[in-house]
Every structure is written in C-alpha cells, then in structure tokens.
C-alpha cells in the first residue's frame, strides 16, 4: 500500500496486532471453530447443545420484563424456538421481521416457556452451507471476524509458504508425511467437518504437529546461529595468575567454598581464559552463594588489567552486593590504587561525578549498580566482564545496551548472568539454548531447613502470637505485603495498615516499613536498623524479594500469598533460614468472595508447602504458568512459542535441536528463510 494512503480502522487494528506481513496473517490461527456446515432440526437438538437451525419468523416483539429485550420466534416445521436479544438495533428487527426465513446459531436451552437461544448469531437463509468449519480468531474491538477471516484468507493465498525444510531432512523432525506447511495452514484455517475437535483443541492433529515442529526448528536455528556468530567474535583472554587477586581473595574469604561453588568457578575461569566471549548463566537456589562466585570472576578480570560491571535490578540488591564486594575486594584493591564504584539512579550529582570519573579513568576496577550502569554518561575505560544478577528482571533492550557499551577495541565483553530461579531442562533446551549453564546445586553448610505453613487469614491472631514468641527469643521477622501493580496507592495502604496493626499489637517493639515509593536514603536507614538488629519486625512490599541477608531473621510472613508467583514466593522464603536458628515461612492466604482459592493459587501454595527444592519449584512453576512469565524480560519483543508447548512437545524440541546444526551447515539459505519466516526481525532479541 502507498505510504501516503491513510490506513482504515481495521487495517490499523491488524498492524496493532502484529499482523503486518502475509505470513503473519497466515500464522494467525483460530482460537476455536463453529460448525456451520449443517442445519439441525429443533426436534433433534438436545439442551445445552450449540446448533444451527433454519426457520420462518412467526413473531417478533419487544418485551420489557425482566428488562428490555427483542424476542423473535422461529418455526422450523418440527418445533419453535425463541431468540432473545438484550442488545439490538432497528436493523436486527428488520432482518428478523415476521415472514422472513433466517438461519440462527447458538446454544439451545429448554425451560418453562419452551426452547430458546440467547443472543444467537443469525443471517438470512439461502445460499449454500459452508463445506468447512468456520474459524473464530482472536481479535480486537475494531476488527470484526468477517473482515479478519477475509484478511487471513488473503494472507494464506499470497504468503510464500514453500517448504524451507529440505525433503531429505524432513523425516528427522519425526513428522507424519503428507503435510506440507501450506496444507497444514490451509487445513487449520478451514478444517473439514469430520475432523476431531479434540485433536484440534489439544493440538495433537498432524497439521498442528507440522506447525509446532517448524516453529521449534526456527527457534533452535536462531539460537544456534547467534551462538556461532558470538563464537566468531573476539573477547579479551583473562588469565588466572598464580598468587594473583583470585588466589588472594580465596585466601581472605572467612569461609570455605562448597564443592559446587569450586566447580562452577572453574567453568567460568576456563571461559574467561578463552578469546571467545563467555555467555554463561550461573543458576543456583536462593542462598547457594552465587555472589562469591561472581566476585572470583571479577577478581580474574581485574587481575588481568580490565574492568568488571555488576548490574542488579533493585537498589537494595545492588547495595547488598556492593557491601559484600567492598568487604571482600577493597582490602585487596586499595594497595593497587583501585576502587569499587557505586552507580544508581537516585544518586546526587556530587556523589555521582567522582564515580563516573573513576569509571572513565579506570581506577574503578569494579562498578556495581542498577540499570544506571548502562546510562549514556557512563564511559568505561576497559570493560571486559559484565555480571547481570536476576537476569530475568532486565529487559532485552537493557542487556543489548550493556553489550554495546562494553564493546572495546573491536572486542566483545564476557557476560555472566545469574539467576536464583533455576531453569527447567526444557527451557534450557529452548529459550536458553545459546547459553552455557553452570549450576550450584548445594547450599553452604549452616543453612537451616525452613518449615513452610499455609495458613488462612482468619488465623491472623495466631500468626501475630508466633511473632511475639520469635521476638522474645531475640529473633527478627519479615512481614511481606503484595505489590498490586494497578495501584501504588493501594499497595501503600495495604502495607501501611499492616504496619499500624503490628505496631499496635507489639508494643515496645520497633516495627519498620519499607516500600518502593520511599526515598533511597530512607530505605537505606530502615534496612540498616533491621540489619543491625535494632528493628524487630520489617513490614515490606516485595522490594526485599532478592539479596537481603539478615541471618537473625527466622520468620517470614507473606500476606495474600495467593497473589504471588511461585518463584517469587520461593525467593521471599529464601530471606530466612540464613543463620543457625530454626526458621519458618507462613503463607497467609485470603480466599475469594466465594470462600475458595483459585486453582492456580492452590497449586502454588501446595508446591511451596511440599518442597523447598528450587529446581522442583521451577519445574512446577513452568507447569502452572507456561514459559511466558517464567522467562521474565527475556521475552519482551522476543517470540515466545505461540504453538509448541514445552510440557508436551519435548520430542519435537529434541528433534529440532538435532536438525538445526545439519540444516545450518548443509542448507544455510533454507535456514535463513526459515528463521525469517517465523521470527522476522525478532531473532535479535534471542541473542541478548
């Protein structure tokens, strides 16, 4: 379409839905189908069944009880049926005037006043019935189904759907023969009436299998391509020097590393010593000791004469890292004239400027901060390693910006991403296929197991009594209130009300309040009082989700636990059990108006009560939510799987993994066309 021709409302809606190319329209598959291929006689229709009937209008009037409605009676020769419309226009009355013959489709309901349909679809009778099921697509208000159906049909007709998978490789995808991509798409947009609706709905039909296998192959090709492209880039080789900073740090630590920490530390050191950019994910359960592994990696970079940046999603977490790293590294860096710099968005100018100068001049060997680390005015002298903590909390664009900032002398940075949310195997095989994964699979000695209790809000007084007994033993307590994204004011009211309630219930105890809208200095002061032991109870929104380390805290109460995600609950629980005292986590839930918990919330709370194993939690989380939320910000702008399901399509994923290198090596042009068809320009996001 010429650039100067304005778009119509439906065309704008198509673009807004991402349906810009013919292939996008062809891949916009129906949500469900309606069977308009047959007419059912009223005498044969069963109550509760959705049917299509045809008859003559014998009566049409507007009734006013219980509310204004259009009631149309039709007779098909075997019985009569009332059609009720609570929203209607004069055009409806005209189309269904007495004597007109019409076709109506809807759910048949029996009752005292005879059979009826409420708000059925209708049209004038006549013409041939469709030969295939009628597709119903997901759409938006300004895009009627009739327009969308025509647009999709045109898209399928115009799109280049020639098979990109060479015939000699097709059998390796393990698919039934006889379904090309074009045939599969044409069929799924207009299935024949004899097709099993169950096979369409659960996506087990061979046409669906074809699409899912192609989608998974595109994803695997894109990931493999990005891994190979990165392997062709150069990065600074960072050697571990005998007697250097790495060894000095190991000797200075006040604890012994676990076997798992030593193993992953060696994996990272091997990567850093190569001239290929490291792209490694360090995963480990809450409290498994990822920060010290990151510090040892930073020591290798600094000892080789380069800089390292550590970026965390929240100021509290960044500061936690900063304090630990200062304690471990600064005594070793000071004699060399090097420092650790601190950068956050809330810094004052006079605090920030010397930090920026130290980063640009290279004196700041390690830079710790929030997303402020990637702001334009931050210029590194020689940055060789970036460590991103809780990587799923960062947007893809932020990670790409960090990589661009670090490129130096035509070289790429090494990238270490850390996550306390372990990644299930199927996710590692698909969305993280371009990453090397290191796993810390044991906790440091001295961590106490945490007892988890699921308690109804009606027993709140008992929970407060439990707090009193913990405080009497000299322990400290967290009380976490949920963040309600739609309303910051509501979050605040919730947290403030709880703070007042606990302050009144616990006279003589210092009860603190921490939430996202507090100025940074105030947050810092509250955390200092809690960390120092003067504050007995900390009421907080989820700003304490990660990184807060107070070994004396032995009880975590999570209010409205049913509103939290599973990995978030697990993260919060990990704030206790960090010392020698027996620790507990109370999941305080509030049932809905009907007195019952939703199915998903019940599954989450059950999983929390049954296991403290982060890997098992992650597996169940994937089952409950699917990969979308699990991936966090990695998916912003990136193509989540639209058709394949990691829970049920592991065999197709495995086949696609094995086929991708063969196709990339032997048929590179086919591979390029295949990725372009499925991912368009989005494949860059998978490289972040």
Automatic annotation (TrEMBL):
Question: Does this entry carry the keyword ATP-binding?
Answer: yes
**One GO molecular-function entry:** 3'-5' DNA helicase activity
Alphabetical list of InterPro entries matching this protein: ATP-dep_DNA_helicase_RecG (IPR004609), DEAD/DEAH_box_helicase_dom (IPR011545), Helicase_ATP-bd (IPR014001), Helicase_C-like (IPR001650), NA-bd_OB-fold (IPR012340), P-loop_NTPase (IPR027417), RecG/Mfd (IPR047112), RecG_dom3_C (IPR045562)
Q: Where is the Helicase C-terminal domain?
A: 459-623
Report the catalytic activity: Couples ATP hydrolysis with the unwinding of duplex DNA by translocating in the 3'-5' direction; ATP + H2O = ADP + phosphate + H(+)
The Gene Ontology biological process terms listed for this entry are: DNA recombination; DNA repair
Tell me which Gene3D superfamilies the record gives.
Nucleic acid-binding proteins (2.40.50.140), P-loop containing nucleotide triphosphate hydrolases (3.40.50.300)
Q: Identify the NCBIfam families for this entry.
A: PRK10917.1-1 (NF008163), PRK10917.1-4 (NF008166), PRK10917.2-2 (NF008168), recG (TIGR00643)
Put simply, this protein is called ATP-dependent DNA helicase RecG
Organism of derivation: Ramlibacter humi
Gene responsible for this protein: recG
């Amino acid at each position: 379409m010429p650039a100067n021709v304005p778009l119509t409302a439906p065309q704008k809606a198509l673009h807004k839905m991402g349906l810009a190319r013919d292939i996008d329209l062809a891949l916009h598959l129906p949500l469900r189908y309606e069977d308009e291929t047959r007419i059912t006689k009223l005498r044969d229709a069963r109550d509760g069944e959705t049917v299509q009937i045809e008859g003559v209008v014998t009566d049409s009037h507007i009734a006013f009880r219980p509310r204004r409605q259009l009631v149309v009676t039709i007779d098909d020769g075997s019985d009569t049926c009332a059609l009720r419309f609570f929203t209607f226009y004069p055009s409806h009355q005209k189309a269904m005037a007495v004597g007109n013959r019409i076709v109506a489709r809807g759910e048949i309901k029996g009752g005292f006043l005879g059979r009826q349909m409420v708000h059925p679809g209708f049209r004038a009778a006549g013409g041939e019935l469709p030969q295939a099921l009628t597709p119903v697509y997901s759409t938006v208000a300004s895009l009627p189904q009739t327009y969308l159906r025509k647009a999709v049909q045109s898209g399928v007709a115009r799109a280049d759907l020639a098979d990109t998978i060479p015939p000699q490789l097709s059998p390796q995808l393990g698919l039934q023969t006889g379904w090309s991509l074009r045939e599969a798409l044409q069929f799924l947009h207009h299935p024949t009436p004899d097709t099993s609706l169950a096979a369409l709905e659960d996506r087990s039909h061979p046409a669906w299998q074809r699409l899912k296998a192609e989608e998974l192959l595109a994803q695997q090709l894109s990931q493999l391509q990005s891994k190979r492209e990165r392997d062709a880039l150069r990065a600074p080789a960072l050697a571990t020097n005998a007697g250097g900073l790495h060894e000095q740090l190991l000797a200075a630590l006040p604890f012994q590393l676990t076997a798992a920490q030593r193993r992953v530390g060696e994996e990272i050191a091997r990567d850093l010593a190569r001239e290929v950019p490291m792209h490694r994910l360090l995963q480990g359960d809450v409290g498994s000791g990822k920060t010290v592994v990151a510090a040892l990696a930073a020591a290798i970079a600094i000892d080789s004469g380069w800089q390292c940046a550590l970026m965390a999603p929240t100021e509290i977490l960044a500061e936690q890292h900063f304090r630990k790293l200062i304690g471990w590294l600064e005594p070793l860096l000071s004699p060399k004239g090097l420092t650790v710099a601190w950068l956050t968005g809330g810094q004052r100018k006079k605090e920030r400027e010397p930090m920026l100068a130290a980063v640009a001049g290279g004196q700041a060997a390690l830079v710790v901060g929030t997303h402020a680390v990637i702001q334009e005015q931050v210029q590194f002298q020689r940055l060789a390693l970036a460590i991103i903590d809780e990587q799923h909390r960062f947007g893809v664009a932020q990670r790409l910006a960090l990589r661009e900032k670090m490129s130096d002398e035509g070289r790429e940075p090494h990238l270490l991403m850390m996550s306390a949310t372990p990644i299930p195997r199927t996710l590692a095989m698909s969305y993280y296929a371009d990453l090397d994964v290191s796993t810390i699979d044991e906790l440091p000695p001295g961590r106490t197991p945490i007892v988890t209790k699921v308690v109804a809000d009606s027993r709140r007084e008992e929970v407060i009594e439990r707090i009193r007994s913990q405080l009497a033993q000299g322990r400290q307590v967290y009380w976490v209130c949920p963040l309600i994204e739609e309303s910051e004011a509501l979050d605040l009211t919730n947290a403030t009300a709880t703070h007042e309630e606990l302050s009144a219930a616990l006279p003589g105890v210092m009860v603190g309040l921490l939430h996202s809208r507090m100025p940074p200095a105030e947050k810092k002061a509250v955390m200092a009082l809690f960390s120092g032991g003067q504050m007995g109870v900390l009421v907080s929104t989820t700003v304490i989700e990660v990184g807060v380390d107070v070994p004396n805290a032995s009880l975590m109460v999570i209010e409205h636990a049913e509103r939290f995600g599973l990995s978030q609950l697990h993260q919060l629980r990990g704030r206790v059990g960090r010392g020698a005292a027996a620790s507990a986590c109370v999941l305080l839930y509030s049932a809905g108006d009907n007195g019952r918990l939703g199915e998903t919330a019940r599954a989450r709370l059950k999983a929390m009560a049954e296991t403290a194993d982060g890997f098992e939690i992650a597996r169940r989380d994937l089952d409950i939510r699917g990969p979308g939320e699990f991936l966090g910000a990695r998916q912003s702008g990136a193509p989540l799987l639209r058709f394949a399901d990691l829970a049920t399509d592991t065999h197709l994923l495995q086949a696609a993994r094995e086929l991708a290198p063969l196709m990339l090596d032997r048929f590179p042009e086919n591979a390029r066309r295949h990725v372009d068809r499925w991912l368009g320009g989005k494949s860059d996001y998978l490289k972040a």
